[in-house]
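Why does residue order matter? Because the sequence determines the fold. Keep that principle in mind as you read this record.
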Amino acid sequence: MMSLPRTLGELRDQGPRPSVKDELRRNLIRRLESGAALFPGVLGYDDSVVPQVVNAILSRHDMILLGLRGQAKSRLLRSLTSLLDPALPVIAGCEINDDPLRPICRRCRDQVAEKGDATPLEHLAPEQRYVEKLATPDVTIADIIGDVDPIRAARGGHDLASELTMHYGLLPRAHRGIFALNELPDLAGRIQVGLFNILQEGDVQIKGYPIRLPLDVCMVFTANPEDYTARGKIITPLKDRIGSEVRTHYPATLEHGVAITQQEAWTQRGADVRLPRYVREIVEGVAFAARRDRKIDRKSGVSQRLPISALENTVSSAERRSLINREVPVVPRIADVYAAVPALTGKFELEYEGEMVGAEQVARELIRVAVGETFSVHLGPVDLQSVVAYFESGGALKLTDEMPAREALEQLRQVPGLLEASSGLGVASSDPAPCQVSAAEFVLEGLHAQRKIGRSDERGFTAPERRQEIELDLEKLERLRRMKRQVN
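Structure:
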């Protein structure tokens, strides 16, 4: 392995380095030829977003990612650093990572002129070459480009018009690296003009003093397309300067969503946690149901953070029950998914119809829908008539959130065919009690979601709601008959 140059003289022997965009392009080509993963940790975009990003890099374009919240836009931009070289030589102490062979700041030019080939160098890792800024309306040109520093001028005895008094902003500090700006429409128009000018012309005026900064930088942006009219817009010259516009999206399939949530959610708690596949699919199904529900604002979007937070809360609810009852393993039940409602209600914006119903009720209905869909996939063909018949004949079963697994299992055994149905979920009678209870409760919740049995907070699982209504009507009719006989 070639040793890293420590002086300008050693660097000259290796020749000039490519620009940032050429460096990204070269390393991307190597990765494509080797068949290695392009952006590890970014899932669900292999056939849509990733090819467009690859084309933008191969074209040496600046790019913007357009998409709703929680679509991994920032993660994708940060992963671009994996395409940078492991070490970048810069002049030691330079604020803007100057190229020793082509310095652009006054301090570095003076240092090279004074020390020549003995000019000391240092090296930057890829993550040090990534600068990210969240655009807000109060961001100034000084934050992005820079400003004159009167204190530096006074201490150094410099005239305010000297380049040596310059305090560089974020964009010059991203020189020879990647500059990412999130929520671009929130940036004031005059600041967007400054970005365009320094990228297009390589110069800008600071306090009336023209500064020439031919920066070598790859510019990447993110924006929510629905925000253009509500919070601002991208000025036409800057939009025209951005080479590629890439649209992101939410997971296209449940499998992609489950994989993303499994990667991001903190579910390993040090205890023996067993997370059934159907619980993962239910939690993910809540997000899918929310994205198509008319009571939820689709323009605002439903972030992938919803299932991530919900799954973490679901596991925590099961963990709490396990600690109270001192039982292992920790196995979430459907009741634990309902206990995760607080992780759902803050993750979506409601339409008028949803506001009338209330966020909590909307969240509970989304869970019921997700349970029904998951139940159809896993146990749709299974004959559960004996379970339904038990409740139709007047049977009832109430399980509480904190009920120990062994106690719950004794009650579940009273329902004919219920535990046997769990075999369709890969759960056997020899499995620990928490596993059997979780599977059996899923069967009951699935039947309730399909309205084959009823459930209430007071009575638990009961006869189907239509049967309850008939029984109530019969009781009412009998009371009327008794009253009539008493009158007569």
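Residues 467-474 have pLDDT under 50 and may be disordered.
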